[in-house]
Amino acid sequence: MTEEMSPAERFAASRRRAEESATALGRFRELYEFGLDPFQIAACQALEAGSGVLVAAPTGSGKTVVGEFAVHLALAEGRKCFYTTPIKALSNQKYSDLAKRYGAEKVGLLTGDNSLNGDAPVIVMTTEVLRNMLYAGSAALDGLGYVVMDEVHYLSDRFRGAVWEEVIIHLPPSVTLVSLSATVSNAEEFGDWLDTVRGDTKVIVSEHRPVPLWQHVLVGRRMYDLFEEKAGPTEPRGRREVNAELERLARMENQRGYQPRGKRGREADRERERRARSRVWTPSRAEVIDRLDSEGLLPAITFIFSRAGCEAAVQQCLAVGLRLNDEEARSAVRALVEERTRAIPDEDLHVLGYFEWLEGLERGIAAHHAGMLPTFKEVVEELFVKGLVKAVFATETLALGINMPARSVVLEKLVKWNGETHADITPGEYTQLTGRAGRRGIDVEGHAVVLWQRGFDPAAVAGLAGTRTYPLRSSFKPSYNMAVNLVGQYGRHRSRELLETSFAQFQADRSVVGIARQVQRNEEGLDGYKESMTCHLGDFGEYMGLRRELKEREAELSRQGAMQRRAAASDALEKLRPGDIIHVPAGKYAGLALVLEPGIPGRATGDHHPRGGEFHDGPRPLVLTAERQVKRLAQIDFPVPVEALERMRIPKSFNPRSPQSRRDLASAMRSKAGSAGWSGPARHRRQRSAAADDTEIARLRAAIRAHPCHGCDDREDHARWAERYHRLRRDTQVLERRIEGRTNTIARTFDRVCAVLTELGYLDGDKVTGDGRRLGRLYGELDLLASECLRERVWDGLGPAELAACASALVFESRQADDAMVPRLPTGKAKDALGEMVRIWGRLDALEETHRINQTEGVGQRSPDLGFAWPAYRWASGHSLDSVLTDADMPAGDFVRWCKQLIDVLGQIGDAAPEDSPVRRNSRRAVDGLLRGVVAYSSVG
User: What distance in Å separates the CA atoms of residue 909 and residue 790, rounded to the nearest whole number?
Assistant: First the structure.
């Protein structure tokens, strides 16, 4: 190329290179062995010119290079740079990377678990740590020049997303912000907001993947491409279409249908026969890995949306003798694992499943999920990056920023549990998961493989793979802690103005424009409908009003009848006692059942609710069904009143988790019911409808018949137009209310939060009281409840282990279903204090309802969950890991995670407690009791 240049062109190119090498970017580029991509160069140039940047690019494209350039600029200018991440594991990883590049003396780490070199010019931290620094006015902010917010799209997270917006809004204007995001479809909108609140911000969007991604579907033993290219006269390069062979297979399978499941033996015979005559089946997990290995597509990450499924997948691969490592690799794995786990006591290794885990690692196979011990997860990540683990079965949490790229990504299913229901994964989630495929600088191409399942729809998968809609939606809501900190720094009026600059309000204000246009179109439609419903005999609007009144009156009487039936059923449920044998009249568990616990508010064990909203619809008895299942029933299972058929004693030795114990008690229940002469449910007679005797309904029917329009030949035609008019009028009123509701929404919520705080004495106008300053040091969902417990000295008489049990209710959230047993609690003072915490929460809940603070919108105090109180109490009391985990029925990783969150909140409680309070001293002792064994292992590599 240079040979073809003229002397003048060569001189100009030489000058450009010389000028660039003199810039910070030129010196930065020399640190890398590879050249930078155009989007990286554009973002770095904007940073060096003094602008903030928003970089939106696919996973694995090298966005973090821009963040590292901000670190480079800060060090060159003698200023500080904070590098924030959403999760501690990512903070640990980024700390390790930066410490290797710039030296450990220049890089620090601040997370809830670790504090290393906190005065360094470059500090890696979780976003919450920076938020707390800003509210506390920390001296560490002095000299801060740059803040990198990695994975900034996390602000869509409904639980933690508000923290990102708090940081962006409250950072000093002198700080340059570097926002790194996954590919989002509204990057320009987010960039406009950043430009508004942070000043000049350049938006850099790249949808180019540095490693091309190929989409496949694995059907039986054969791998099909999801797309095929078809050339046409106007498109010589071809256009992507769904593979016709896949669509043909899907049609064949759907037409063939599936026989209902019979006995297990016949089902297995049919499956073998079907596989023999057909190429279409879902391959087993071991078959998938074996196939990928033979195709040269390992290492691979298989996403399974279940922790138990990940562990089962490893065991299935081991059971069939799958080995992906040779003897040399096995030795390297064992040496690294023994080095990393040397700090774990021998007696804990068996409890943690160490030897089974090690066997899988030696064969090159591992699981990766939140239930694993952090040390185990980090070892899996390190071995995978080194190529010593070649097949990882992971939950979707692995997709959140951890640097674990693979050659291939496998998706078992395209449906996952979202906490409430089984739902299809979104295009954004699909992009995030498959983005792990293809290692830059190693692989020529990456591969995303979806497994064939019954009812497979190739077009739907193509829609997921081909859609790039992943909009960023704000989840920002004011909290109590946020309110006292804002008012303390800025006063009420200025705080209100600050909150109105949030991305949430920015999006709400923009959305109003489109709604207003729709209202205008609706009003034009209403004029046309009104003309079409005109009747020459009289006022048809008046006539339709009478018909609607009649319909509404009939519906109201129907509702009243249903409410009376529910009330009667609820009254009957409140009379039940443990040991009552009843007949459940409806629902999934209809039939004989034995009441184990009546599930009446205030009467559960320990005089508390097991979970916050569990009893809001009335009693929910916990029963043993005739089918030997222990289930918590709901009001919907009792459409009619129920009464005890017979009573029996429940043995003290009854264990609801033991199948044998459930079988014995269910058998005794059936015998007892039979001996009492019960032969089946009684039939309930339908009662006479209330509408038949209602005078208002009779009056309305008479008025309708007497109206002039009733005799019109075109009456029903007019009525159809009138109904359309009514529906459009109602829809328009809804839109008008939405416009009204979206204007100043954040500020209105802030006013309600401040009203609660004022009533409780935390705020006095623009002044934050002493109690308010204490609340300002408490972070978390239950900040106000913790502050009230300190103010009312609920925890003063507790020992360290008892305090740990009570504080656990502020952080723990159960993963179990609603039909779980009431949690076991420590006895004595701890149990009394937990009961008092629940009563205080009830008072706060009622106060929030008075001030129209709605928990479903993410504002307010959820109910304390007591499910971790017993494990926390026992661990803080010094019991062994084996006995605590066995008793808690909890994975080691979950146990460690909850303990670390508990240690964090105990630290906050200790700092916020009055100087003379024993809680200050006991919280530190509780931390010492918790921070031992598996909980104390350092997770910084």
Answer: 8
CA distance 64 to 700: 71
The DSSP annotation for 50-86 comes to T-EEEEE--TTS-THHHHHHHHHHHHHHT-EEEEEES
Rounded (5°) CA angle 355-357-362: 90
pTM of the full structure: 0.69
The answer on pLDDT for 258 being more than 50 is: no
Strands 622-625 and 630-632: antiparallel
Cβ 375 vs Cβ 936: under 8 Å:
no
Task: Give the confidence band of 119 by pLDDT, cuts at 50, 70, 90.
Answer: confident
Q: Are 892 and 885 in contact (CB under 8 A)?
A: yes
Q: How many CB atoms lie within 10 A of CB 734?
A: 11
Note the helical H segments in 207-302.
244-256, 264-277, 285-294
Burial class (CB in 10 A: 0-12, 13-18, 19+), 37: middle
* Whole-number Å distance between alpha carbons of 52 and 26: 19
Q: How far apart are CA 398 and CA 378, in angstroms?
A: 11
Q: What would the pLDDT profile of 29-66 be if each residue is shown by its tens digit?
A: 877 777 788 999 999 999 999 999 999 988 777 888 99
Between CA 623 and CA 26 the distance in angstroms is 71
Query: What is the mean predicted confidence (pLDDT) over 79-102?
Result: 87
> Over the stretch 539-579, which tens digit does the pLDDT of each residue have?
887 888 888 888 888 788 878 877 887 888 888 888 899 99
Phi, psi of 743 (to 5 degrees): -85, 125
| Total length of the chain | 941
Strand partners, 180: 55
Cβ-proximal residues to 474 (8 Å cutoff; 6+ apart), any chain: 155, 156, 161, 165, 502, 503, 504, 506, 507
Give the pLDDT score at 257.
53
What is the helix, strand, coil percentage profile of the chain, to 5? 55, 10, 35
Q: Residue 712, SS3?
A: coil
Do 618 and 710 form a contact (C-beta atoms < 8 A)?
no
Which tokens sit at 16?
């450009």
Q: Distances in Å between the alpha carbon of 210 and those of 54, 296, 352, 443? A: 19, 20, 40, 10
Cα separation, 346 vs 341, whole angstroms = 10
What is the spatial distance between Cα 643 and Cα 573, in angstroms, rounded to a whole number?
8
The pLDDT assigned to 611 comes to 38
Q: In sequence order, what are the beta bridge partners of 630?
A: 624
Question: 533 phi and psi, to 5 degrees?
Answer: -95, 5
Long-range contacts of 421-429 (CB under 8 A, 24+ apart): 425/464, 426/464, 426/470, 427/463, 427/464, 427/467, 427/468, 427/469, 427/470, 428/182, 428/469, 428/470, 429/396
User: Lowest mean pLDDT: which of 85-89, 96-100, 576-580, 864-868?
Assistant: 85-89
Q: CA 299, CA 290: separation in Å to the nearest integer?
A: 11
Cite the beta strand spans of 649-791 per DSSP E: 763-764, 767-768
Task: For residues 258 and 284, give the distance between their C-alpha atoms in angstroms, rounded to a whole number.
Answer: 19
Query: Pairing between strand 227-230 and 415-417?
Result: unpaired
Sign (positive/negative) of CA torsion 267, 273, 278, 279? positive
101-115, 511-525, 541-555, 592-606: which range is least confident on average?
592-606
Residue 96, number of CB atoms within 10 A of its CB: 15
Reported as a single tens digit per residue, the pLDDT across 899-915 is: 988 998 999 999 999 88
- What is the sign, positive or negative, of the torsion defined by CA atoms of 398, 401, 405, 411? positive
Residue with tokens 């660039």: 20
CB 599 within 8 A of CB 632: yes
